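Morning run. Coffee first, then this:
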Amino acid sequence: MTYPAIPGTVYFVGAGPGAPDLITVRGRDLLAQADLILYADSLVDAALPAAYARADARILGSVEMHLAQIVRLMCEAARAGQVVVRLHSGDPALYGAIHEQMAALDEAGVPYEIVPGVTAAFALAARLGVELTVPELVQTIILTRPAGRTPLPEHEQLSRLAAHGASLAIYLGITRMQQVVRDLLAGGIYTPDTPVVVAYRLTWPDEVLIHGTLGDIAEKVKAAGFTRQALILVSPTLDPANKRTDRPTSRLYDPTYSHRLRRRREPADESAEA
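And here it is:
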């Protein structure tokens, strides 16, 4: 079933981390119905809108546009009864700068809808074959960024977040790698041996993954020369030593654990089986 687009509506669609086939089915359906597609061409592969758009759709990259231009184009098309897709990388709710766009559309009386996408942190976990929440190891995931042109509230400084020892995904921080490492170690929980993976252009054809620890990752990133489109993932779950069958497991599938859809099963009587 195709998700029906409503004429006169702006759809903020998450494109996913890079690979065109990682967009959601709903996002793909909306691209196929769009009259105007405004996409973040500095981060979204041009092949994505081209793959799904109608032949007569207007496809515009927004890298050289400022906010007022983007809003004006969306409003003009929506008021003309067209379907508008604003295509963002990853998930629009995370560093997508959609807050100000939605505020402007609210002021203009133009309806909009958000379609989530796969963010890089979860795409990287899938790529690595890890779960970021492992029982009795880590149960919290933090998505953040270091301070840059956009400052951080004092209570969100990396050193404070690092004090939780959680699985930590750091966006937009690759050019500050040495400072990021210093801040993470200052939290007092992570150590120089804590595993780290840096993913450059994850799921793109030129993807590069760098495996390391907080003790050596800054030098590895410097040698690789990455300056953009890279995610930093820090987590004890990245350590292969923690991927063992003798570790504590989730109670979800434990036969002695009951919930409203499954009855508890008593452990087998080993003496009776003998």
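The first helix runs from residue 25 to 33. Good start to the day.
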